[in-house]
């Protein structure tokens, strides 16, 4: 079959005029490689020898998967046409797979020609010659794979198998480590598989034959979904919310834009499918992602502090390079090669990240152990122990034997509790508050005054069920008494509030003392002195929080009334750890425990 081509910007040529002897001479031989353009119409003239079309065999003209194909044939003296193609709403049911048009030798125009009008809106396919095939040939290609076809599809088979194995592997890693990044990465790999995996000719032919009108929409939408999954993965992998906050905001906006693009594509398909607008929108989205990615790479290179970011840059740039090459050369295999290299680099980065997390956890756990040991040794301020012994001596000298006996009893009990808790990682909130009550009672005995100590605990907290690090609150109670309440001449009040908020336990120590500024200006301290217990407690909380979140976990607020210092409030935020799931109690007031007056 001889095939020639005439290219025009007008798709409404008069057909008899095109087939006139003078105009047929304007048809040119098919070019070697010609990239189709959406504005052009391609008139394909096929010259056949009718003697070769045997009557006992069904013959077909086989076209590529173009958007619109209309092939003209002769019925007696009338010109009729078959409608075919992916975006043609009037496809003929006799056309196999929207591309293979059945012909008979009596349908030849002037006994020699078939004429086809071809349109395509994708701007990414080469114009290939249609071919003459028979029923046996079509059956062979439908049921068998040739050696050349297998070689052409082998990279796709390897890609599909490799990505599928990696999805299973990283899902297994997620169940092992419970790190949501592995789920996000698996979702990204799945989106790549659903897009590039369907580009194999075997799968593509099956989809074209079984769902010819759905596949163009699927192919358009899945490309945008790949980019959405990639952006979500980039947020998690880069820890962008904290390490690249500005980039994080741009990525979020880009995700919203891409979701809008998906909704727009689906809406266009529902209202007026196959108009070519969906392809135009997709091209705009592609160019946006290229520009956005290059800008993000420059920003990351200027701002990065962790070496793991280099894995992301190397993998992403490789994929971008493959995608741009595929776009320019119109060969999707380049994108697949870029994606394969990207996945390999990302996987190395995931392994590196896991190793760094394990090393950091070991370092944190080791430092926590050392800090807790130091903290527990220094938890009871030596001044408190010295002053307590002096207070006992003072009670004895003044013949207040009962007070001295009470003091010794409480003091020895507190020391025993401290030694007992030193071997524990966590104690219950009830044990913590009981110890604090005992400590405050001792301080009230020492200072010979009532500090008005109250404990207010939210009703939804089971104090026997919630766990806290041992003696984590005591340094702040001690600081409130020594530097806030003791120098104050007003009625003293010390309050402890405990509540829960967003999987955290919120602890507030509030006093109505002289405030930090007065204490700093009027309290004499040796040069270089600082509260070791306070510093160690701060370090303990910081180390605990590094395993959970990076937000501020200790907040100190100066309180004022009528522009005068009215005390200090310290807020601690700790991860909420429970022995058993808590029972919810809504609408109840906090439980209030008042210290008995001395």
Report on the structure:
With 598 residues, the chain is α+β, with helices and mostly antiparallel strands. Helix content is 53%, strand content 17%. It has helices at residues 15-18, 21-24, 135-143, 147-177, 180-196, 201-210, 214-238, 240-243, 245-271, 277-303, 309-329, 332-378, 382-397, 401-421, 429-447, 474-485, 515-522, 532-546; strands at 2-8, 28-29, 41-47, 59-62, 68-75, 78-84, 100-103, 113-119, 131-134, 427-428, 453-457, 466-468, 494-501, 504-511, 554-561, 564-575, 577-578, 591-594. Helix 9 (245-271) runs antiparallel to helix 10 (277-303) and helix 10 runs antiparallel to helix 11 (309-329). The longest helix has 47 residues, at 332-378. Residues 526-530 and 584-589 have low confidence and may be disordered.
Layout of strands and helices, then pairs:
Blueprint: E1 2-8, H1 15-18, H2 21-24, E2 28-29, E3 41-47, E4 59-62, E5 68-75, E6 78-84, E7 100-103, E8 113-119, E9 131-134, H3 135-143, H4 147-177, H5 180-196, H6 201-210, H7 214-238, H8 240-243, H9 245-271, H10 277-303, H11 309-329, H12 332-378, H13 382-397, H14 401-421, E10 427-428, H15 429-447, E11 453-457, E12 466-468, H16 474-485, E13 494-501, E14 504-511, H17 515-522, H18 532-546, E15 554-561, E16 564-575, E17 577-578, E18 591-594
Parallel strand pairs: 11-13
Antiparallel strand pairs: 1-2, 1-3, 3-8, 4-7, 4-9, 5-6, 5-8, 10-12, 11-18, 12-17, 13-14, 14-16, 15-16
Helix pairs in contact: 4-5, 4-12, 5-7, 5-12, 7-9, 7-10, 9-10, 10-11, 11-12, 12-18, 13-14, 13-15, 14-15, 15-16
């Amino acid at each position: 079959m001889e095939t020639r081509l005439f290219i025009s910007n007008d798709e409404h040529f008069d057909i008899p005029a095109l087939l006139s002897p003078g105009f047929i001479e304007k048809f040119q031989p098919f070019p070697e490689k010609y990239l189709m353009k959406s504005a052009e119409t391609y008139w394909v003239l096929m010259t056949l020898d009718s003697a070769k079309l045997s009557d006992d065999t069904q013959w077909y003209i086989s076209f590529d998967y173009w958007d619109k194909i209309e092939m003209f044939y002769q019925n007696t003296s009338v010109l009729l046409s078959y409608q075919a193609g992916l975006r043609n709403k009037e496809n003929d049911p006799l056309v196999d797979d929207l591309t293979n048009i059945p012909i008979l030798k009596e349908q030849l125009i002037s006994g020699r020609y078939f004429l086809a009008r071809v349109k395509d809106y994708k701007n990414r396919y080469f114009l290939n010659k249609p071919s003459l095939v028979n029923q046996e040939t079509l059956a062979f290609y439908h049921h068998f794979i040739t050696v050349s076809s297998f070689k052409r599809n082998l990279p796709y088979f390897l890609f599909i198998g490799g990505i599928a194995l990696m999805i299973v592997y990283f899902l297994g890693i997620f169940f092992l480590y419970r790190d949501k990044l592995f789920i996000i990465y698996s979702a990204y790999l799945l989106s790549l598989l659903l897009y590039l995996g369907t580009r194999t000719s075997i799968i593509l032919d099956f989809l074209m034959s079984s769902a010819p009108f759905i596949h163009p929409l699927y192919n358009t939408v899945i490309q945008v979904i790949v980019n959405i999954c990639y952006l979500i993965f980039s947020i998690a992998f880069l820890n962008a919310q904290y390490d690249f906050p500005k980039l994080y905001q741009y990525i979020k906006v880009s995700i919203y834009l891409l979701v809008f693009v998906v909704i727009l594509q689906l809406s266009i398909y529902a209202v007026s499918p196959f108009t070519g607008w969906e392809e135009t929108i997709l091209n705009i989205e592609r160019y946006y992602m290229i520009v956005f990615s290059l800008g993000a790479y420059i920003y990351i290179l200027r701002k990065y502090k962790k070496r793991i970011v280099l894995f992301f840059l190397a993998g992403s740039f490789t994929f971008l390079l493959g995608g741009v090459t595929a776009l320019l050369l119109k060969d999707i295999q380049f994108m697949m090669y870029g994606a394969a290299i990207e996945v390999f680099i990302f996987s190395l980065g995931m392994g590196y990240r896991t190793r760094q997390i394990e090393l950091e956890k070991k370092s944190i756990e080791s430092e926590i152990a050392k800090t807790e040991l130091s903290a527990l040794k220094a938890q009871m301020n030596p001044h408190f122990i010295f002053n307590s012994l002096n207070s006992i001596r003072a009670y004895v000298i003044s013949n207040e034997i009962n007070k001295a006996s009470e003091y010794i009893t409480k003091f020895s009990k507190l020391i025993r509790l401290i030694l007992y808790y030193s071997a524990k990682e966590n104690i219950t909130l009830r044990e913590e508050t009981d110890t604090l009550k005992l400590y405050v009672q001792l301080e009230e005995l020492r200072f010979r005054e009532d500090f008005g100590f109250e404990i207010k605990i939210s009703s939804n907290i089971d104090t026997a069920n919630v766990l806290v690090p041992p003696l984590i609150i005591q340094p702040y109670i001690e600081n409130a008494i020594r530097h806030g309440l003791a120098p104050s001449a007003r009625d003293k009040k010390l309050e402890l509030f405990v509540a829960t908020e967003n999987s955290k336990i919120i602890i507030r120590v509030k006093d109505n003392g002289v405030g930090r500024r007065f204490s700093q200006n009027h309290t004499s301290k040796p040069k270089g002195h600082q509260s070791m217990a306070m510093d160690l407690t701060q370090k303990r909380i910081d180390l605990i929080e590094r395993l959970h979140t990076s937000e501020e976990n200790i907040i100190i607020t100066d309180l004022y009334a009528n522009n005068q210092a009215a005390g200090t409030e310290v807020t601690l935020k700790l991860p909420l750890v429970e022995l058993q799931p808590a029972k919810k109690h809504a609408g109840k007031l906090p439980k209030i425990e008042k210290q008995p007056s001395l």
